[in-house]
Amino acid sequence: MKKIIAGVDEVGRGSLIGPVYAGAVILNKKINTKLLKD
């Protein structure tokens, strides 16, 4: 079985009623992470 790890982040400042947005990403192990910016 192949193991996959997903990085997830969400935003929705105190949103009891308002919208919440979430994003997820799965990258290839060979990617050069030095090129990524947060």
TrEMBL record:
<dbReference type="GO" id="GO:0003676">
    <property type="term" value="F:nucleic acid binding"/>
</dbReference>
<dbReference type="InterPro" id="IPR024567">
    <property type="entry name" value="RNase_HII/HIII_dom"/>
</dbReference>
<feature type="domain" description="RNase H type-2">
    <location>
        <begin position="3"/>
        <end position="38"/>
    </location>
</feature>
<dbReference type="InterPro" id="IPR012337">
    <property type="entry name" value="RNaseH-like_sf"/>
</dbReference>
<dbReference type="InterPro" id="IPR036397">
    <property type="entry name" value="RNaseH_sf"/>
</dbReference>
<protein>
    <recommendedName>
        <fullName>RNase H type-2 domain-containing protein</fullName>
    </recommendedName>
</protein>
<dbReference type="GO" id="GO:0004523">
    <property type="term" value="F:RNA-DNA hybrid ribonuclease activity"/>
</dbReference>
<dbReference type="Pfam" id="PF01351">
    <property type="entry name" value="RNase_HII"/>
</dbReference>
